[in-house]
Specification:
The complex is a heterodimer.
Chain A (H helix, E strand, L loop, with lengths): L2 E4 L7 H8 L3 H13 L4 E5 L7 H15 L4 E4 L3 H10 L6 E7 L1 H13 L3 E8 L7 H17 L7 E4 L11 H15 L4 E2 L13 H14 L4 E4 L4 H13 L7 H8 L5
Parallel strand pairs in A: 1-2, 1-8, 2-3, 3-4, 4-5, 5-6, 6-7
Chain B lengths: L3 H10 L5 H10 L4 H21 L5 H18 L13 E7 L6 H12 L3 E9 L1 H11 L3 E5 L7 H12 L7 E5 L5 H7 L3 E2 L3 H13 L1
Helix pairs in contact in B: 1-2, 1-3, 1-4, 2-4, 3-4, 4-5, 5-9, 6-7
Classes of the chains: A alpha/beta, B alpha/beta.
């Protein structure tokens, strides 16, 4: 089962910021509902750039989104207090936190929230020394984080490791490193999940959509099972649905055929 | 016989393997090293910058061009002394604490260097204290900060506050950039300038240095 986190409710997108400032509830409802209808399994809520009003904005957004859709939320903030406020309002099933890492301050601030709200958590493969370059270095960070979180009683199934996708335009091996990292995590910790924002792979290159679509298929093939993306991008979703079928994760090809009937594969 | 124009073209095309031979030919022919740098290598990068800005060239191509320029520079640097190329000004630049994105920063560094600035690259994930220490050590004209995440952009604010607290704010100009950054945000946190891409950032620095 794939986890698709719909990324559209983010105030770093100009239209969303405007909707927040104008208290345009209808626009937010529409964004939530069309993402859910398009196959999102979580709705991400991020208002990290609303300086001084992030907390009240988070409350406003969470309440509207939950009033509109039934799927759970992914609460996304640099500020642990804002995470706390957002999580405290979540009632559509177990929420997800975006994100924890092994950076000392972040780890200490987010860990109690995972427990307090019995939340799932996106785990960034980085620590206080920065972002590891090779998959072996990333594995060191992964092993540390997994050991620490396990000791705190967090279940493997609730950890969503984000291998941190860098653009191939600047680091030629960035895509290959992610694939290797996912394979290695799968070997060592078969029950954990994954999360990645994959559009970073194509930054700086023309015709980004084909790179993004192919990278979804490539990462799914090695076991990646979670993505933060725009689920209303029908071509992207068609690739994911087809890939799910060819990888044997779609019983009787049911979802594939259903998507065909809805006209989603054209 | 190679010409300065061939060297520019070589940089533009990112012909890493050929640049050294071309530059060596010009050196052997007695062309002034400064002329080779300015009218050959840098002239090539000066064609690259606007093509990147207009979307005709892409990130890996710009990097290949910059690497090509640097390959040529390796042959020329030993032939000149430090004072031969006057610096337009000194900038220290880094990606803020918690953020590891460096493409935009690195592009800016390449363009600033090819425009005659002295650049000190602090790297990524740079804490407030590290910016402060670097300002004290290098005494730059301009401090550049990059942030690509909504989760780290407020570090620009805390860095500026820290610089102010240390009494360093008045000695420098501060420019910021990165995907979530806007002119409005720059004004909110008291930065001196914002630009949306590397090429316009160079123009912004030019304006600051002549102001």
């Amino acid at each position: 089962m794939l986890t698709i986190v719909g990324e559209l409710i983010n105030t770093s997108r100009a239209a969303v910021k405007e909707a927040v400032l104008n208290k345009d509830e209808a626009y937010i409802r529409e964004l939530a509902s069309k993402q859910a209808k398009s196959g999102a399994t979580y709705i991400d809520v991020n208002c990290g750039n609303m300086i001084n009003i992030e907390e009240e904005t988070m409350k406003w957004l969470v309440n509207i989104v939950q009033d509109e859709v039934d799927i759970p939320l992914c609460i996304d903030s640099p500020d642990a207090e804002v995470l706390d406020v957002g999580l405290s309002l979540c009632k559509n099933g177990r929420p997800m936190i975006n994100s924890i890492s092994d950076e000392d301050e972040r780890y200490a601030a987010v860990l109690p929230l995972i427990k307090k709200y019995n939340a799932k958590v996106v785990v960034l493969c980085m620590d206080s020394t920065g972002m590891p370059n090779t998959s072996e270095d990333r594995m060191k960070v992964v092993r540390n984080l997994h050991a620490k979180l396990s000791k705190e009683g967090i279940a493997d199934e609730d950890m969503y490791f984000d291998p941190l996708v860098k653009p191939v335009s600047s680091v030629a091996t960035a895509g290959a490193e992610v694939l290797n990292t996912v394979k290695k995590i799968k070997e060592d910790f078969p029950d954990v999940h994954f999360m990645c924002g994959l559009s970073n792979i194509s930054y700086g290159l023309p015709n980004r959509s084909i790179l993004n679509r192919l990278f979804v298929v490539q990462t799914m093939t090695v076991g990646m099972d979670g993505y933060v993306l725009d689920p209303t991008n029908t071509k992207m979703m068609a690739g994911i649905i087809a890939s799910t079928a060819t990888l044997g994760m779609d019983s009787y090809c049911g979802k594939y055929i259903k998507a065909h009937r809805k006209g989603l594969l054209n | 016989m190679a010409t300065l124009n061939d060297v520019s073209q070589c940089v533009l095309d990112g012909e890493l393997d050929e640049v050294k031979a071309l530059v060596q030919q010009l050196i052997d022919a007695g062309i002034d090293p400064i002329t080779i740098i300015n009218d050959g290598l840098i002239a090539g990068m000066n064609i690259v910058a606007p093509l990147f800005k207009s979307g005709e060239m892409f990130v890996p191509e710009v990097m290949e061009s910059a690497d090509t320029m640097n390959e040529g520079m390796k042959l020329l640097k030993p032939l000149i002394t430090d004072g031969d190329i006057p610096s337009k000004g000194k900038i220290i630049i880094g990606t803020v604490n918690g953020d590891l994105h460096d493409i935009g920063k690195n592009l800016l560094i390449m363009m600033m260097e090819s425009r005659g600035y002295t650049v000190v690259d602090l790297g990524v994930d740079i804490k407030e204290e590290a910016f402060v220490a670097a300002v004290k050590e290098h005494k730059p004209d301009i401090v550049g900060m990059s942030s690509l995440l909504t989760t780290t952009m407020m570090k620009m604010d805390s860095t500026i506050k820290q610089l102010t607290k240390e009494g360093l704010r008045d000695q420098i100009k501060i420019i910021i950039g990165g995907a979530p950054i806007t002119q409005e945000f720059a004004e909110d946190i008291g930065a001196d300038g914002y630009s949306e891409d590397a090429s316009t950032a160079v123009e912004l620095c030019d304006r600051m240095m002549t102001a």
